[in-house]
Amino acid sequence: MLTEEEFKNTGIELFKKAVTTIPEDIKKLLRSAYRSEKEDIAKTQLKNILDNIKLAETLKYPLCQDTGIPIFFIETGKSIDFKVMERGLREAVIEATEIIPLRPNAVDPLTRKNTGNTGKHLPIFHYEFTDEKILRITLLMKGAGAENMSRMKMMKPSDDITEIKKFVIETVKKAGGNPCPPTIVGVGIGGTSDYACFLAKKSLLKKETTDLEREILEEINTLNIGPMGLGGRTTSLRVCIETAGCHTASLPVAVNLQCWAHRVASVVL
Question: At 14, is the secondary structure helix, strand, or coil?
Fold first, then answer.
């Protein structure tokens, strides 16, 4: 069994990777957008983003001053001591805040007293149990600019895919430049109201795309919001959809946006 210290050290390494780099597939999408973008201002913004990524990787500095709220996705089929793991990863948050450093973003929701990057129910843990005899820990750092643009709607069960697409595109349009586009658009469809919101966030970890996701992305990129909201063809890089069964009388749909600085890191133990 892994010790609390081992979990702490693993967590610190995840933080170092997550906040100073972005996944290679996202970098490829940004480079592709830079090559295909026609608007001068948009092209300049994309170049600034790519330069920023290179500097962060070289200097080992955070990609953005808002280093976000830490969310851990745990997938396991192994017998582990969850309390030990959570204590170790919580210590990793505290230490990483000091040594990387991370901006202390967490506050009490009522008093607004700063609690560093931990606090009541922080960091956040999501669990999924699998048949694989592994332990996979994925860290997602979620900044406020993108998170604040989240939306959830209880649609009519008679609404079809056209209405769902309309809601997703409308959400991106209303968000404008606030989530620091180009964005990744997470969509959760089904379940219950809370579960649809979870699915929307979980979908941000997807890498493969479907025809429906590409179709919505194409429509989003006609909105002319563009990088940093200054216009252009590149409003979003990817649309990701996760679904779950739902009650016959309801249709929950949630949208969770992620900025271009898609800070995510994963390890298999």
Answer: helix
Query: Do residues 167 and 189 touch, judged by C-beta distance below 8 A?
Result: no
Q: How many CB atoms lie within 10 A of CB 58?
A: 9
Enter the pTM of the model: 0.95
75-132 pLDDT, tens digit per residue, is 999 889 999 999 999 999 999 999 999 999 999 999 999 999 999 999 999 999 999 8
If phi over 0 gives left and psi between -120 and 50 gives alpha, with beta otherwise, what is residue 5? alpha
Comparing C-alpha atoms, which of 253, 242, 262, 101 is closest to residue 179?
A: 262
Indicate the burial class of 260 (C-beta count within 10 angstroms; 0-12, 13-18, 19 or more).
buried
Give the length of the chain.
269
Residue 201 sits at φ, ψ, to 5 deg, of -70, -45
Is-contact 243 167, C-beta < 8 A?
no
Is residue 59 left, alpha or beta, with left meaning phi > 0 and alpha meaning psi from -120 to 50? alpha
Determine the 3-state secondary structure of 131 from DSSP: coil
Q: Write down the mean pLDDT value for the chain.
A: 97
Element (H, E) at 34: helix 24-36
Question: Is the distance from CB of 1 to CB of 86 less than 8 angstroms?
Answer: no
Q: What is the pLDDT of residues 73-90, one digit of tens each?
A: 999 998 899 999 999 999
Q: How many other C-beta atoms can be found within 10 angstroms of the C-beta atom of residue 161?
A: 11
Mean pLDDT across the stretch 5-11?
97
- The partner residues of 185 in beta bridges, in order of sequence, read 239, 257
